[in-house]
Amino acid sequence: MVWEEIIKAVVLFAMGGYGSYLGFRIRLSKDPEEKTMAKDLHPKLLAAMFFFFALGATGGITALLTSDKPIFESPHAVTGVIGLSLLTVQTILPTLFEDNPGLRTVHGLLGSSIMTLFLIHAALGLQLGLSF
User: Fold this and answer.
1) Does an H or E element contain 16, and which?
2) Which stretches are transmembrane (predicted)?
């Protein structure tokens, strides 16, 4: 269980960290080539992160079921469900940018908040993994 949490932490820092960086480059860069590259890679990288986190959630739920532990009573499970739900909202926001450009700011703030939530989630997961 600890190894799963370490792998998800690597996904969080590598994919989520670089994906977040690319999001900031989209907003802040003056270089059109850099912006184009970031606009292409940012959604792909974070979609892959979402996919791996969803797989991790499936594995975590399976581990809890097979060890006769309650599924949604741990803070780790709660932060995971909240995080995946917020990532779903985050995915929808770009489709609304054209009609409401102010949502770009919401998207950036929400993305930063989600990354913070997943840092807390990682700490709770490590704590949970060490308790087995």
Assistant:
1) none
2) 6-24, 45-65, 77-97, 109-130
Q: Which two tokens stand for residue 93?
A: 């926001």
Tokens of residue 18, six digits: 């670089």
Q: Cα dist. 99→34, 88, 96 in Å? A: 25, 19, 6
Task: State how far the Cα of 62 lies from the Cα of 28, in Å rounded to an integer.
Answer: 42
> pLDDT tens for residues 1-31?
567 777 888 899 999 999 999 999 999 999 9
Q: How many CB atoms lie within 10 A of CB 47?
A: 14
Cβ contact 57:84 at 8 Å: yes
Residue 72 has what DSSP assignment? S
* Amino acid type, 101: P
